[in-house]
Write a structure and sequence with these properties.
Elements lengths: L2 E5 L2 E4 L4 E8 L7 E7 L6 E6 L5 E3 L7 E6 L4 E6 L8 E8 L9 E2 L3 E6 L1
Parallel strand pairs: 2-11
Antiparallel strand pairs: 1-3, 3-8, 4-5, 4-9, 5-6, 7-8, 9-10, 9-11
């Protein structure tokens, strides 16, 4: 069983930065593909970024150039550095783990952390 706990969200102004953290417990973290997702009120959940065990990275278009995903396997933690935040970034941000055998769907999800960006 894998448990994921996000932290680092908050209320910021447009142009500010936040670093989200997702701490994992249980399982073998280094084997997991980790992802960040977000969901704004009234909208569907969307992918933000993913990072594989080999450190290959995917960013959604809105995240390119502004967000950076990284992982620290020793700490079993994945991070999302968010710069130049915009009001459209306001959402609950979730981390998720895709455990072996890897697939399109993620197997474990955190409870989320709220990010609110004021204009």
């Amino acid at each position: 069983q894998v448990q994921l706990v996000e932290s680092g969200g908050g209320l910021v102004q447009a142009g500010d930065s936040l670093r989200l953290s997702c701490a994992a417990s249980g399982g073998t973290f280094s084997f997991y593909t980790m992802g960040w997702f977000r969901q704004a009120p009234g909208k569907e959940r969307e992918i933000v970024a993913t990072i594989r065990r080999d450190l290959s990275i995917y960013y959604s278009e809105f995240a390119k150039g502004r967000f950076t995903i990284s992982r620290d396997n020793a700490k079993k933690t994945v991070y999302l550095q968010m710069n130049s935040l915009k009001p459209d970034d306001t959402a609950i941000y979730y981390c998720a783990a895709d455990v072996p055998p890897w697939g399109r769907e993620y197997d474990y999800w955190g409870q989320g952390t709220q990010v609110t960006v004021s204009s």
